[in-house]
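Lecture 7 notes: from sequence to structure.

We start with a single chain of 413 residues. Read the sequence below before looking at the structure.
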Amino acid sequence: MNAFTIITNRLFEKVFRREEETVLFGEPCTIDPLTAVAIVESKHVGSTAFCGPLPESITKETFSSTTDNETNLQEVHTALLSPNPRSAFASAMGLALTGERATVFLTATDLHACQDLLIECVKQHLPIIIHVALCDHCQNVTYDAYLASSNTGCMQFLASTTQDAVDYTMFARQVAEESLIPAIVAVDTFKPTTAELPSEELSTAWFGLPNAFIACPNDAQRLIFGEERRRVPDRWNLERPLLLSPIHKHSSATFSATRVPYYDSHLPTILEESQTTWKKLSGRTFSSIQQTKVVDVETLYLCQGAMYNIASGVDKLKVVSVNCMRPFPAEALCHAASNCKQVIVLDTTSVTLCGDSQFATEIKATLASLPCIISVVRCLDAQEEDIAALDTVANEGGTIPAMLGVSFIQDNT
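Now the structure, written as tokens:
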């Protein structure tokens, strides 16, 4: 969405929308996803730990400054420069235990090294946001670490545009603080696009203060905290020396068995309520999937991340992108594929030894009850012409290739 479109929409909303449905707009700008996320986090999050994926200039300019503006949610921002990803992650966990909003920036390789800390973060119900850069500055993308984290118990969102990165960051933090489930917000591109950064009014209405009290959304939280609790629970408070949620032994079967039904089962309700509130405040919708408007075709293409921007550029193609890996949007995918005879998974992962990747395995398990043929095509480097050629083969009833975007013929000219 360009700046002219944003301004036009803003004028329309101002003239025709009722006063009780006022949307809190921000200012449009052209910016890359990680820088936009850094700006959002520096303004509205108390503490940040990082060790690398952001450029050094952005790190210094964005996170080292403080503000005297009393209207800001956080008057002083704490930036922790850590020598390695594990210490950065541990620092963010420690800050969250003390009742501060915390976030950590990692690369895909860093996330691989922090899987045990991520699992511990889930067990301790720490509402932190883990930002992951799936690509380097040479635009080499890997989704393996992102998918490897799908069994840890945290929420997962994948953004391929700046606006998605900003919106998922805002959405993930609010849901994480209400459900006490950590969230991963991953980006797979550094390409600058036009986005609307959140205004101070939107952030205030959406986030609230970390020390404000909110109603506990489920029985498990009410059992621990009572009817109300601090938005970001303060587990280590020297003025109130009571340790909440003590560390359980990893062999505690009771602890593992009770976490899913009593904590995680309420997450879909929290997500649905947050989606309604987000649309009312920002004027933008949040959905676990993104799809093209083409409906009258028999072949459905499923993908994730930046591959959607490539596949959706092909005419008359029904493409669905999975933006939220956890919780997995099984119902939405079944609805999208209900009238299709063939489903082609555009797999952008590099894991091959185990057969299908985690993404393809999830798709097959979800659509197993539907009478459609499911094919998996590896296409990490595929372009629009490759997808168009694949669609021609699929429509003609030909054999679906196992791989796209790779040429085995060397041009010596």
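The radius of gyration is 22 Å. Keep this in mind for problem set 3.
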